[in-house]
Amino acid sequence: MRAVELVDFEGESLIGTHHVASSERRGRVGVLVLNGGYAPRDGHAGLSVKICDALAARGFPSFRFDLPMLGDSPGRPPALVDEFYELIYRGELCDAALTIAREMCRRHGLDGVVLSGLCGGATTAIYAADRAPGLIVGLALLEPELYKATPSRDPRRATGRAALVQTLAAKVFSYWGWMRLLTRENGMSRFAFLPRERILDVVLPRDQLPKSTNVPLVGAFCRRVNARSPTLVVTARGKLHEVFFDRITGVVLEGGRRPNFTHLRVAGTNHTFSTGSVHATVATHVVDWAMRAFAKETPHGVPSVA
Amino acid sequence: MQNAHAGARPTPHAQPLRQVALEEHGYLPGLAADDGLIYYVHHRACCTRLRGPGAVLLVGAMGLERAHSHLVWVRWARHLARRGLDVLRFDYRGLGESTGEHAELTLDSCVEDVTRAVGLLRALHPSSPIALHGLRGGALCAARVFAAQSGQSLLLWEPPPSARAMLLEKLRHKLAADFGQGTREARRTRQDYIADLEAGERVDVEGYPWSRGLWLSTADSPLVLPGADEPRRSLVVHLDGRSREGRASVDVPRPPFWGESRWLHPELSALFDVSCRFLESA
Known about the structure:
The complex is a heterodimer. By secondary structure, chain A is of the alpha/beta class.
């Protein structure tokens, strides 16, 4: 069962969907799924809907909200995707996410909220959890982006053939173009027969932080993990975000092994999990982790803070 | 707070949720009890207009194009509401905020959803002219419903030549993604996927499961444009800037907003102006 929820934030109403938990009694922990990048709240190909449906079926009240300027919520987004990600890198949607989480706790009698999100949603979730650790009791991060990708060429500067030439040049001469090529996130990857792993080890040494690391974000992530807050990370095996995640956490978490930290890798898919028919796998990973982390036995058998 | 619970079977026309300024969000039941619910957003007109249609039904794009075009679609709805038009937009069952499985979505179910949404808008505006406006796959559905004598005017943005052509284009993207991104071990052809669909297997395209029902429903699915003797007005707008006889064309930033564009808020004033002029004069 679903219901539309509205939350007031800075004089506007943010729009969300509540997946009501199947249990007759209220759960004590809810899950709030944030927009994956700039996608509407149903997620890429409905991934967020599937995750929330699966969580609600196991007794977790689950919510998907459109943050300001996204989906059905009000606000004017920046003109360019790159400009939007600059806002995300600085954690500027964090206040809205925390307002929603607080309101869901108040409205539905929850002890805390697990924040979840893909890519930019994961970034906002990490910042929010660091700001309000008592409210945000866990993180379920899909393809977190612990680095800052340099903004690409501004498409306003060229049109027509000039734009095409610039696009090709950006692929050939850009660091990020090559990184996407090496991690098979680029349409040209099929034509590049390269020793990918060896090249990646050279350009991204495993014993130092990449120059593009989003240091404040990584600091926030480490504080949550080191504070033993339950944290799940799901990545697309071998893809760009996983490569950076491994390099960064390999340095800052010294191998990344913590009992409260789970990293699962999904093979045969892409950054948005929209290839390889893996939606059910991703949803199962999130639900299984949530059950292990939060479904401590309670008198009425519903999820509580473990 | 008034709330429409998707499992609670709200009555068709009286389930606005709490009013957000001038927007109402709700669920519209399908025809049968187990048909799923159609999520809709009603953008109330912000001012009174003297002429033109009283209301516009926005029939959105399908699949991943829905997600890519969402910001522009919402922006367009709000733009029209500010111009004094009442606007209703919705998600097809199995897509976006509507309930149901995408694997059960067919062209016919989408057309049925458009018809249901027209019914809701007609109930809200019993005596006003209604315009149907479709984007991409939604344009195919809007044109079909218009051909069945629903609506007083028809506006189409970049309609594909047919639903089958649209699916074939998506399959081509799938092949490129699977191969380029290395997400399948064995290389397959478009014919392989078509054979799978015709054999009743589900094929995952851009994350959405396609069914045999969807594939077969597009077998005879050309864009149905009104004939020369049709008194109701219609306009097809192409968004590539290339002129075509009898159709409007404007240039929008590339890649277009229903694809993997780098624009979240592209400059679309020419498109909005052409479309508003048509709607207001229809």
